[in-house]
Specification:
Blueprint (H helix, E strand, L loop, with lengths): L5 H18 L11 H17 L6 H5 L5 E5 L7 H7 L4 E6 L2 H14 L4 E5 L6 H4 L5 E6 L4 H11 L6 E5 L4 H8 L3 E8 L2 H6 L3 E10 L4 E2 L1
Parallel strand pairs: 1-2, 1-4, 2-3, 4-5
Antiparallel strand pairs: 5-7, 6-7, 7-8
Helix pairs in contact: 1-5, 2-4, 7-8
């Protein structure tokens, strides 16, 4: 079972309060009136990235103060805001092309005093020049696109040392990987455990060393 520190729980509750208020005006998430659903479906689901095998994630993010993480298609802040609250020493870049959603994210950061978050209101491919020479970073995404499309975005903003973490449904994940491998070469690991399966959560797909098959250009 996940154990979240009490100080983080209070911050996450405040985050959900803001989310519910904004959801009355713009469509951020479904069923926003059920706080228990929001907690389990979004907070706990995303917090798994903090909890999984620390030598592959936490140590990478906290090994130095310049480490950073990109959340592609940040939406309502899952997983970017959840991670930024838990990892205050890491800088998070939250990318989303929808102005109303980035306005919401700015509001969350203001109310929660999240100084480690940069909101980028733009299409993912348009941000590539900004990330061209940045080191010690990882990429995350949740409920954004097919694996093939996600890897095309990562090829634009990442490099050969960029760890990639996708929160994905466990249904048809093997088929999705096989389809992506028709266009891409990559090393991957499906991170899962019986408790996640019992609770109805998806898997975490960890990827590295991505190469486009046609020209074998590694990111």
């Amino acid at each position: 079972m996940l154990t979240i520190p009490k100080d983080l729980i209070e911050k996450y509750k405040h985050y959900l309060d803001i989310l519910c208020q904004w959801n009355n005006r713009i469509n951020l998430v479904a069923d926003s009136h059920n706080l228990e659903h929001l907690w389990q479906r979004h907070i706990i689901d995303c917090y798994r990235l903090v909890d999984i095998k620390q030598d592959r994630y936490i140590n990478h993010l906290t090994e130095n103060v310049t480490s950073s993480c990109i959340d592609m298609g940040a939406g309502a802040g899952f997983p970017g805001i959840v991670l930024a609250i838990a990892l205050p020493e890491t800088r998070f870049y939250l990318i989303d092309s929808h102005h109303k959603k980035t306005a919401f994210l700015h509001n969350v950061c203001l109310h929660l005093n999240l100084r480690n978050v940069v909101i980028m209101n733009n299409r993912i491919e348009k941000t590539a020049p900004f990330f061209a020479n940045k080191a010690s970073m990882c990429i995350v995404a949740r409920a954004l696109a097919s694996l093939d499309t996600l890897l095309s975005y990562c090829a634009l903003i990442g490099n050969e040392h960029t760890p990639i973490f996708f929160l994905k449904s466990r249904h048809n994940i093997k088929i999705e990987i096989e389809q992506a491998m028709q266009s891409w070469q990559f090393v991957y690991e499906i991170i899962d455990n019986p408790q996640w399966q019992k609770s109805g959560y998806g898997i975490v797909l960890m990827i590295k060393f991505v190469c486009k098959r046609r020209n074998e250009l590694c990111i």
